[in-house]
Amino acid sequence: MARIKPQALLLQSKKKKGPTRIGASTLILCNLVVALIVLSLIATYRNWSKRSIDQTEDGLSTFEGSDFGAFVKKDDLPGYAILNTAKGHITVELYKEGSPEIVNRFLDFCKKGYFKGMLFSHVIKNYVIQGGDYQGLGAAEDLISNGKLQLQLGTSPKHEAFMLGTSKTKEDSKGFDLFITTAPIPDLDDKLSVFGRVIKGEDVVQEIEEVDTDEHYRPKSSIGIHQCDSEKSNLSANRS
């Protein structure tokens, strides 16, 4: 029998050896790398999700920093509002196409309960009722004097009766006044921004108009708005 040389035995022993084992430290390192990659992907996904949610909330929220509906399509905004006053409900149609920015602010204030408890500070018969305490339009005496003067001059009225507006000088402030005309008002476009009209509850407006006032056209007894609600469609047609 032929004797196997030592070199041949060495080669055979090497061929018979199993695969080289991976060290424990190498396995730990690989696991750490995989864990870091997974954590990085999770963090990226969470950050993306949070930004998407924040952008959506910013679009639906508003006023402080951006107006209500700033990122919302005009078609998605409510088109009507109901003012629940001490004398009854007043339903208004909002001009979201013609005055979107003002409507946005109004809806935001309505949503936040700003108009809840707002008093009608001035009531000028055959002219206008004012909700809020803004004095930028001047004294009530000036309002009615200017209105009568323009009527005598035969100025074409641009504001019909039962129109809903707010003072232009407050458009960029943190407050919001409401004005409802009770008669055609000759050119007040330099002071008022009309953003809606009363479509139901004209009798309520007229009843408010009949309250007793002092010499400065302030109601002698408090009368105001209990609640403001918005609706996408006119669902309040049968509301009393």
Task: Provide key terms for this protein.
transmembrane, 240 residues, two-stranded antiparallel sheet, rotamase, Cyclophilin, alpha+beta, 34% helix, isomerase
Protein architecture, described:
The protein is an alpha+beta fold. It has a domain at 79-232: Cyclophilin. Helices cover 34% and strands 22% of the residues. The protein has five helices and ten strands, in the order ααββαββαβββββαβ. It has helices at 6-16, 24-60, 100-111, 140-152, 202-209; strands at 80-85, 88-94, 120-124, 128-131, 157-159, 163-167, 178-181, 185-186, 192-200, 225-231. Strands 3-4-7-6-9-2-1-10 form an eight-stranded antiparallel beta sheet. Strands 5-8 form a two-stranded antiparallel ribbon. The model is unreliable at 59-72, 136-140 and 148-157 (pLDDT under 50). Keywords: Isomerase, Membrane, Rotamase, Transmembrane, Transmembrane helix. This is Peptidyl-prolyl cis-trans isomerase.
Structure, briefly:
Helices cover 34% and strands 22% of the residues.
Reconstruct the topology from this structure:
Layout: H1 6-16, H2 24-60, E1 80-85, E2 88-94, H3 100-111, E3 120-124, E4 128-131, H4 140-152, E5 157-159, E6 163-167, E7 178-181, E8 185-186, E9 192-200, H5 202-209, E10 225-231
Give Rg in angstroms: 36 Å
Which CATH class of the domain at 79-232? Mainly Beta
Number of helices: 5
Order of helices and strands: HHEEHEEHEEEEEHE
SS elements, strand count = 10
Helix content: 25-40%
| CATH-defined architecture of the domain at 79-232 | Beta Barrel
**Spatial strand sequence of the major β-sheet:** 3-4-7-6-9-2-1-10
Give the helix/strand class: alpha+beta
Low-confidence stretches: 59-72, 136-140, 148-157
The residue-averaged pLDDT reads 76
